[in-house]
UniProtKB/TrEMBL annotation:
InterPro entries, per the entry: ClpP/crotonase-like_dom_sf, Enoyl-CoA_hyd/isom_CS, Enoyl-CoA_hydra/iso
UniProt key word Lipid metabolism: yes
Catalysed reactions, as listed in the record: (3Z)-decenoyl-CoA = (2E)-decenoyl-CoA; (3Z)-dodecenoyl-CoA = (2E)-dodecenoyl-CoA; (3Z)-octenoyl-CoA = (2E)-octenoyl-CoA; (2E)-tetradecenoyl-CoA = (3Z)-tetradecenoyl-CoA
PROSITE patterns in UniProt: ENOYL_COA_HYDRATASE
Main function: Key enzyme of fatty acid beta-oxidation. Able to isomerize both 3-cis (3Z) and 3-trans (3E) double bonds into the 2-trans (2E) form in a range of enoyl-CoA species, with a preference for (3Z)-enoyl-CoAs over (3E)-enoyl-CoAs. The catalytic efficiency of this enzyme is not affected by the fatty acyl chain length.
Name of the featured protein: Enoyl-CoA delta isomerase 1, mitochondrial
Keyword Acetylation: yes
């Protein structure tokens, strides 16, 4: 449905792939220079290794396409992205787990540092890694009122890495982030708007896409160089920490995921999802 809407809305498309063959659909409106990246991995757009690799590679492709802006959204009913694939954390193969973590680090770096402005059109629930993807964009428009967003890792008995946490601090500030992270709180659209986790709340996805395009149009009169330098200065401390501590970050995640206590929590959480 969303794909049809975007096709009607925009003019010429390149690099278009069909949903049946791909977990990601990317379209570029040549006239506006705006790309739309639509996640389509039923049932909940959970981020496993292969999906993360596709997202990372598409972001690199957009860099080469020299687009002017990007909208990230979902083609699924009610779900933006359910975060990392939790089944990958249950009795994981350490090698594959390391690959997932490294790929997620790299995908995040690519998204957080894009040389073009980005908007998350959050048209469904967005827990954990889904919230991180949204927070990494330059602007967030969320469809309301019935969806939720937040970093709920503590509810799974796991720890959001420092770069997840710092990304949230950059969006909502130290105090609100601390309460939000420690309690693993999921916010409704209205609550998210109130604490600044999202920038706008709209009743439907058509409005959300329009708001996203409006935001991106602000950059028509801004030098791309000035935009990118300013964004880099703002985001550099969070990014630099990860670049300097990639292995340490990875070791912590893998070690903690493999511990019996965390495995027990993840098992219980997965069971609760099935119920
Ligand atoms: C360097 C790397 C750092 C790693 C460290 C950070 C660690 C973790 C970050 C994360 O992202 S952990 C993921 C946390 N995600 C969640 O807690 C989301 C849990 N899911 C939900 O709350 C709900 O499913 C939903 C997204 C709100 C959707 O609800 P709905 O009622 O529409 O659908 P369900 O029936 O609950 O789910 C359908 C189907 O999908 C399975 N599923 C849901 N979420 C995930 C997931 N994240 N990974 C894998 N599978 C998921 C769910 O179990 C159902 O499966 P079936 O019962 O149909 O088999």
């Amino acid at each position: 449905m969303l794909r049809r809407y975007i096709l009607n809305k925009t003019n010429t498309f390149i690099n278009y792939r069909y949903a049946s063959q791909s977990m990601l659909q990317s379209t570029i409106d040549d006239k506006l220079g705006i790309a739309t990246l639509v996640m389509n991995k039923p049932p909940v757009n959970s981020l496993n290794l292969e999906f993360l690799e596709e997202i990372k590679s598409q972001l690199t492709q957009f860099k080469n396409d020299k687009i002017r802006g990007m909208i990230l959204t979902s083609d699924l009913q009610k779900i933006f992205c359910a975060g990392l694939d939790i089944t990958e954390f249950s009795n994981p193969n350490p090698e594959r787990l390391s690959k997932i973590c490294t790929t997620f680090q790299d995908t995040w770096l690519a998204l957080y540092l894009t040389q073009f402005p980005t908007v998350a059109v959050i048209n469904g629930h967005s827990p954990a890694g889904g919230c991180l993807l949204a927070m990494s964009c330059d602007y967030r428009v969320m469809v309301g009122p019935n969806y939720t967003i937040g970093l709920n890792e503590t509810k799974l008995g796991i720890v959001a890495p420092k770069w997840f946490q710092d990304c949230m601090v950059a969006v909502i500030g130290q105090r609100k982030a601390e309460v939000s992270l420690t309690t693993g709180k999921m916010y409704t659209t209205d609550q998210a708007l109130q604490i600044g986790l999202v920038d706008e709340s709209v009743p439907d996805v058509d409005n959300a896409i329009n708001k996203g395009i409006q935001f991106l149009n602000n950059f028509q009169k801004i030098s791309p160089w000035a935009y990118k330098m300013t964004k880099d200065i703002r985001r550099q401390p969070t990014v630099q920490w990860l670049i300097d501590n990639k292995q340490k970050d990875l070791d912590f995640v893998v070690k903690s995921m493999m511990s019996p206590n965390v495995q027990k929590s993840i098992g219980l959480y997965l069971q609760s999802l099935k119920k």
